[in-house]
Write a structure and sequence with these properties.
384 residues; 74% helix; 0% strand
C-alpha cells in the first residue's frame, strides 16, 4: 500500500504499509539488543558508570515485544473489519493464521523436544513433560514456572503464547461485538487496556513480577491499543491529522517520563519499574508514534527510513528471528562469558554474532520452510 493521510476502503486486506514492516523489523532488533545485553551484564559492572548507563539504555529493547503486540493488534483487527461480511470468515482467518504461525513454532518445539529427550532422565522428568505440554498448547505464559536450565531456551515464547491466545479469542469476541455495536467494541478495547495496565501494576506491587509481565490479562494493553487504533482509523482516519500535535506531545512526554524513571532508580528498581509502570509509558508512546506514522504522507522522513530494504528484509524474516535468536544468544553469551571480557566488549561480540547467525538461520527457514507453506494461504483460504 502506498501510505496516505486518509484510510483506504480496506484497512489491511489488499494493502501494505511499508512503515509497519519497518517497525516490525525494528522491534525484533530491539529485543535481540536487549537479550544480548542482559545475558552479559553482571553485578560487578554496576559500579562502572558507562557500563551501567549503556545497560540501562538497552532495557528499552525489552519493550520491543510490546511494539510487536501493537502492530498485531492493528493488523489483525483491520483484517477482521475488512472481512466482516466475507463468507466463511472464521475458517479463512484461522487457516491463514495457522499456516503462518504453527509450522515454524511446532518445528522449533520439535527440535527443542529432541534436545530434551537427549538429556538424561531425572526425577523431574514428569514435570518436564508437563512443562513441554504447556508450551505445545500455548499456555506457558500462565503455568510454566520461571525458566532455568533447558527451559531457558524456550522462555522467550511467552509472548508467542499471548499472541496465539489473542488470535484464538479476538475474532470470536470482535465479530460478536462489532456486528452489534461499533461503540461497544471501542468500549471493550478501552476497558481491556485499563484492566491490563492496572493488573500489571498491582501484581508487580505485590511482588508477582514475573506473572505480571507474562500473564495475558496483564499484558494485553498493547494489543488492545493496536486494535483500538484500527477501529478508530477505519471510521475517523480523515480527522486523525487534527491531533498530530497532541499525539506528538503525549509521545514525547511518555518517553521523557520513562527515561527519567529508568535512570533515576537504582538498577533493581529500574527493572521493577519497567514491568509495573515503564511498559505503560512506552506503550502510550508507541501507539502515538504509530498513529502519527499512519496519518503522515509517504514523504515523511521516518517513513522513508523505515521503508529501507534492510528493515523490510528484517521484517520478512522477523518471526524466525524472534524464535531462533534466543537459544542462539544464550549459547553465544555463555561462550563469551568464558572469555572473561568486560561487559561492553563482550556484549558487542555477542550481539554481532547473534545477529549474524539469527539472520542466516531465519533467512534459510523463511526461504526453504516458511515461504512454501505461506503460498498455501491463498490456495486454501483466500481472504476476499
Amino acid at each position: 500500500m502506498s501510505d496516505s493521510q486518509s484510510p483506504p476502503q480496506n484497512i489491511v486486506v489488499g494493502h501494505h504499509y511499508d512503515f509497519i514492516d519497518g517497525l516490525r523489523g525494528l522491534a525484533v532488533l530491539l529485543v535481540i539488543w536487549f537479550h544480548a545485553s542482559v545475558f552479559l551484564f553482571s553485578a560487578s559492572e554496576e559500579n562502572q558508570f558507562y557500563h551501567e548507563l549503556y545497560y540501562r539504555l538497552s532495557l528499552i529493547g525489552q519493550t520491543g515485544v510490546d511494539l510487536f503486540f501493537i502492530i498485531s493488534g492493528f493488523l489483525i483487527t483491520g483484517i477482521l473489519i475488512d472481512t466482516k461480511d466475507v463468507e466463511n470468515r472464521f475458517r479463512r482467518f484461522y487457516i491463514r493464521r495457522s499456516l503462518r504461525i504453527f509450522p515454524l513454532y511446532y518445528g522449533f518445539l520439535f527440535l527443542m523436544g529432541a534436545v530434551l529427550l537427549l538429556q538424561p532422565l531425572s526425577e523431574d522428568w514428569g514435570s518436564d513433560v508437563g512443562r513441554f505440554f504447556y508450551h505445545s498448547v500455548y499456555l506457558q505464559n500462565w503455568f510454566s514456572p520461571a525458566s532455568d536450565g533447558f527451559w531457558l531456551l524456550l522462555s522467550h515464547t511467552w509472548s508467542l503464547a499471548i499472541e496465539e491466545q489473542f488470535y484464538l479469542l479476538w475474532p470470536l469476541i470482535f465479530w460478536f461485538l462489532y456486528k452489534r455495536s461499533y461503540v461497544s467494541t471501542i468500549g471493550f478495547c478501552l476497558v481491556l487496556i485499563i484492566i491490563s495496565m492496572y493488573l500489571r501494576f498491582d501484581l508487580a506491587e505485590r511482588g508477582y513480577h514475573n506473572f505480571a509481565y507474562r500473564a495475558t490479562i496483564s499484558h494485553f494493553d498493547s494489543i488492545a491499543m493496536g486494535a483500538l487504533c484500527s477501529l478508530l482509523f477505519c471510521k475517523y482516519g480523515q480527522v486523525f491529522s487534527r491531533f498530530k500535535l497532541i499525539l506528538s506531545l503525549v509521545a514525547l512526554l511518555s518517553i521523557a517520563v520513562f527515561l527519567l524513571c529508568l535512570f533515576s532508580y537504582d538498577l533493581k528498581k529500574s527493572h521493577l519499574f519497567l514491568i509495573s509502570n515503564g511498559l505503560t509509558f512506552m506503550n502510550v508512546a508507541y501507539i502515538c508514534v504509530f498513529m502519527l506514522l499512519l496519518i503522515s504522507s509517504s514523504e515523511n522522513v521516518v517513513k522513508k527510513f523505515l521503508a529501507k530494504p534492510f528493515f523490510i528484509f528484517t521484517a520478512r524474516i522477523s518471526y524466525g528471528m524472534y524464535i531462533f535468536h534466543f537459544p542462539i544468544c544464550v549459547f553465544i553469551s555463555v561462550w563469551v562469558q568464558s572469555l572473561d571480557y568486560e561487559y561492553l566488549y563482550g556484549h558487542f561480540i555477542a550481539l554481532t554474532l547473534t545477529l549474524c547467525l539469527s539472520y542466516l538461520v531465519s533467512w534459510l527457514s523463511y526461504k526453504y520452510f516458511e515461504e512454501p507453506i505461506l503460498k498455501l494461504k491463498d490456495r486454501y483460504a483466500p481472504v476476499m
